[in-house]
Amino acid sequence: MKIATAGKGGSGKTTIAGTLSRILARKQGKILAIDGDPNPNLAFALGIPTAASNTIPSIPSSLMQVVEDPDGGKRLVMSISQEELISNYAAGAPDGIDLIVMGQPAHGSAGSGCMCASHRAVRGLIGEMSGYGEHTVTDMEAGLEHLKRGTVRNVDVMLVVTEPYYRSLEAAERTISLGRELEIPHVYVVSNKVKNKSDQAAIESFCSRHNLSILGMVPHDETFIEAERNERSPIDFAPDSPGVQAISEIASKLIALDSPQTRQKDESLGVQP
Predict the structure, then answer these.
(1) Chain segment 154-172, per-residue pLDDT in tens
(2) Span 51-110, pLDDT tens digits
(3) Residue 68 half-sphere exposure, CB side, CA atoms within 13 Å?
(4) Cβ count within 10 A of residue 169
(5) Where are the domains of the chain?
(6) Which of 29, 129, 188, 243 has its CA 20 to 30 A from that of 71?
(7) In which element (H, E) is residue 53 found?
(8) How far apart are CA 89 and CA 107, in angstroms?
(9) Contact, 102 vs 121, CB < 8 A?
(10) 105: closest CA among 9, 37, 41?
(11) What gap in Å lies between CA 141 and CA 138, rounded to an integer?
């Protein structure tokens, strides 16, 4: 299954992507994590030490090439094999996860960079690496630009992470609308930093009014903040914390979604509404 996390900046999507990857790896085996954000932080969330994360090579935009088929159709293919990609660009993370980091904006200087080639590379990479391991988890760039460029067109599931206040929920609704336009099979809300029943009720009310399906709710968890202060991933710092346990429940629902028995029905996962 190809999973992507999206959301407004500061919503916590990277923390959820990293923790989800670790849990899925423990439950099911090989995971490929892709950091699709031009400001990459997924390595930290996965538990790779800061010093090591600074040495991870990024993917060059030339990795993906456009090939024209005999019928005139065009598609993206990798210029190297899966084995070469992992050998040359992947960093090892805890629980046997392989992490790949996307390229930076072209030219690199402020105001002059273009992410077009990087978006194309990530889109092609998700498709080309779909047979590698059990799941692919991609942490997308914050905002809507990657959706407008169709970067997540090749994913099976998009998790839109939102906080329990109106502007964040409104941004989630716009993100989900674009995801549906891209015909992503499964698009869900994951609410994060939920402090109380009032927060929960506000999220459920908004999602019900806008026909948004909630896959899970992650409570406000002070141990996540403490983990970051101690430069550790949440799952290593406090594996039994409420936040980690909530993400574990989301992982279990995704595993069930990928099974033949429940693949066709969200209702079997207990998805709201």
Answers:
(1) 789 999 999 999 999 999 9
(2) 888 889 888 777 777 777 777 777 777 788 888 888 989 999 999 999 999 865 544 444
(3) 3
(4) 22
(5) 2-269
(6) 129
(7) helix 50-53
(8) 20
(9) yes
(10) 37
(11) 10
